[in-house]
Specification:
Blueprint: E1 4-8, E2 16-20, E3 25-27, E4 34-36, E5 41-46, E6 49-53, E7 61-65, H1 69-78, H2 80-85, H3 91-105
């Protein structure tokens, strides 16, 4: 899950202990698998257009997908993109996004 780190803490009377570093967990909207943030592709809704956030730091409502075609197909079948983004995108806009996503993961 996370990385264990050895640390000596004065508050515990000088006893040594291990603690977990805080690594952000995210969930894929296709397969509902949870994992570290950097395992997924972040998709952001900006100005009613879906874009892939490569650096994962753009503003806007975002969703996460595994970089696999199966997860994209599951999200498409379940209509999870519109539901998770809390918006209504047209079929043409979603098809453009699906093509963009497939191009991105096939690079």
């Amino acid at each position: 899950m996370g990385r264990e780190t050895f640390r000596r803490n004065v508050c515990t009377g000088g006893r040594n202990f291990y603690y977990m570093k805080n690594i952000k967990q995210r969930t894929c909207i296709g397969c509902n698998r949870t994992g570290d943030k950097n395992e997924f592709v972040r998709v952001v809704l900006l100005d009613d257009q879906l874009t892939i956030d490569v650096e994962q730091n753009q503003d806007g409502r975002g969703i996460y997908l595994c970089p696999m075609v199966d997860c994209l197909e599951k999200a498409k079948r379940r209509r999870a993109v519109n539901h998770r983004l809390k918006t209504r995108l047209s079929g043409k806009e979603l098809e453009k996004f699906y093509i963009l996503f497939l191009d991105f993961i096939n690079k």
